[in-house]
Amino acid sequence: MDDAVQRVVVDKVGGRDAGFDDLTAALPTADCRYAVYDLDFTIGDATAKGADGEAPRSKIFFISWYISLK
């Protein structure tokens, strides 16, 4: 959030080939952050319409990152 708490400020946008480890490495160790991670994957499924028998899936994760300060 900006200082006036009026809008979301994007710190970083990962590339299409970036993995979950890249996302977690970009999170700060001493500050709070929100992250969105779009995950495409396939699951073997007998009802799938694809020629390879795989059903394409997509999930979007919303992650709240908070490190407890002691």
TrEMBL record:
GO CC aspect terms: actin cytoskeleton
SUPFAM superfamilies documented for this protein: Actin depolymerizing proteins (SSF55753)
An example Gene Ontology biological process: actin filament depolymerization
Keywords from the UniProt entry: Actin-binding
Family as reported in the entry's similarity comment: Belongs to the actin-binding proteins ADF family.
The organism's taxonomic lineage, starting at the top: Eukaryota, Viridiplantae, Streptophyta, Embryophyta, Tracheophyta
Name of the protein in its database record: ADF-H domain-containing protein
InterPro entries (alphabetical): ADF-H, ADF-H/Gelsolin-like_dom_sf, ADF/Cofilin
Residue ranges constituting the ADF-H domain according to the UniProt record: 1-70
PROSITE patterns linked: ADF_H
GO molecular function: actin binding
Pfam families attached to this UniProt entry: Cofilin_ADF
